[in-house]
Design brief:
Length: about 450
């Protein structure tokens, strides 16, 4: 439905046009220039407040630098500024006339790969930086693998520090070809390669006059125009119950509602639904949203659902369309990124948190660990240590209604938690590890960068 009322001013027109939101994450090896790239994006897109820029200029001057160190705009921890590295995930929010952005600047050190998992878990695009002098290194492959595992639909290869290789096209072409071939083996659906110099600003926001051989978009132009879809209504309806509302007051003596957030799809009044894991069925008799009765609710709305029958429904249950309910299982086969310092071993007793449901579980088997160099599987490693990626089989004490992660990033993901202290051990993705490479994958002659 369109509105017939036009914006009354240029400012309102600007606000109206900046309606799409892109969540993206940056990743790369140590000193590849992630924070500098983010700082350059913020600075050149006029998204930095005056007092922030002045503070960066003061710190840079105190270090004896003649120009502002734009990396300081994102490296906020004292340890990060002292070491010149990123440790924690730094989130930044900015907007241009064409789009709004939520950016996660993730660390480059191998011991902080788990932070990259956090930053990319909700991203629609990942920017993987490579130092033009070093090319594709192990951490580059690791970050590409994490992006593929997390089903990030768009990947940008930013070949940075082109100023240090005299803006040579052959250097960029070789790196782009190697990375693109590796990404296609992971099943990454799209790779866009862009040669940049974050320090000098080449091809970040403005096109570079020093690389006239490149005719593709700048980083910001690609971020503004890459197609993203937040429409989850085409997916099957999934409603994890977060809270049961029973006022039992004189005004509402018999009210029973189930509150939560629609994870995907849509729910409608009159729709036949199944409550999992019990398998009991009923009909949606009403939906309440923000104090109003509505006929339909769709992801990601937070609503209260009322059922026609008095069923035993509690926190952690999943309400789904009866004709399209997910399978229920106690044996979960998944790929996990191990994020804890303590290892995950066969026989390890854990808690498995899936949407709003947390159940006891035990690690039955660790069939393999991924070797990033050649994407081979190391069989039966017996344990996974920090930053390892591997396959696991987990047996849960209670049934779970679990989708494949390829079908739903929300209801196909879970956490493994240490029951002793609540530490997160691993982030899991149910089902197959990587997407199958597309049939129309480019031949070696075609591989490279998007123009």
């Amino acid at each position: 439905m369109t509105s017939s009322t036009a914006p009354a001013s240029a400012a309102e027109a600007l606000d109206a046009s900046a309606t799409t939101l892109l969540r993206f994450a940056t990743a790369g090896s140590v000193d590849d220039g992630k924070s500098t790239l983010v700082g350059r994006l913020l600075h050149d897109s006029k998204s930095v407040l005056t007092d922030q820029l002045e503070a960066v200029e003061r710190v840079s001057l105190g270090r004896g630098q003649s120009t502002p160190d734009l990396a300081l705009l994102t490296d906020g921890l004292r340890a990060e500024r002292e070491q010149g590295i990123t440790i924690d995930v730094a989130y930044r929010y900015f907007a241009t006339p064409r789009r709004r952005f939520i950016l996660a600047d993730t660390p480059g050190h191998v011991q902080y790969t788990r932070n990259m998992v956090t930053g990319a878990s909700t991203a629609e695009l990942a920017v993987v930086l490579v130092d033009a002098r070093n090319g594709v290194v192990e951490q580059t492959r690791r970050h590409a693998a994490v992006a593929a595992l997390l089903r990030v639909p768009h990947v940008v290869l930013a070949v940075n520090k082109m100023d240090l290789v005299d803006y040579a096209e052959p250097v960029f072409a070789a790196i782009a070809e190697e990375f693109t071939a590796y990404a296609k083996r992971l099943g990454v659906p799209e790779v866009t390669a862009i040669p940049i110099s974050a320090l000098a600003g080449d091809n970040v926001v403005e096109p570079s006059a020093r690389m006239d051989w490149y005719g593709g978009p700048t980083v910001l132009e690609h971020l503004e125009t890459v197609p993203v879809s937040h429409d989850l209504t085409g997916c099957p309806g999934r409603f994890p119950v977060q809270y049961v509302i029973r006022p039992q007051t004189a005004e509402h003596p018999d009210y029973r509602g189930y509150a939560g957030q629609v994870a995907s799809g849509a729910l409608r009044v009159g729709q036949r639904v199944t409550v999992l894991p019990s398998g009991r069925t009923s009909t949606i008799s009403g939906i309440d949203a923000l104090g109003h009765v509505v006929d339909i609710a769709w992801a990601p709305q937070s609503v209260t659902v009322r059922l026609a029958d008095d069923l035993d429904v509690s926190r952690g249950d999943l309400i789904a369309p009866a004709k399209d309910a997910p399978p229920v299982t106690q044996d979960v086969t998944a790929t996990v990124c191990h994020v804890a310092d303590r290892p995950l071993t066969v026989g390890h007793r854990v808690l498995l948190k899936h949407t709003t449901r947390t159940v006891k579980a035990i690690v039955k088997e660790i069939p393999s660990r991924l070797t990033l160099d050649d994407l081979s599987q190391h069989p039966s490693p017996g344990r996974l240590t920090a930053n390892d990626i591997g396959r696991v089989v987990v047996r849960t004490a209670e049934p779970l209604a679990l989708d494949a992660y390829a079908d739903s990033r929300r209801t196909g993901s879970f956490l493994l938690i240490d029951p002793a202290d609540g530490t997160t051990l691993a982030a899991g993705m149910a089902g197959e590890s990587f997407a199958e490479p597309t049939a129309e994958a480019a031949t070696p002659e075609d591989e490279g960068w998007d123009f």
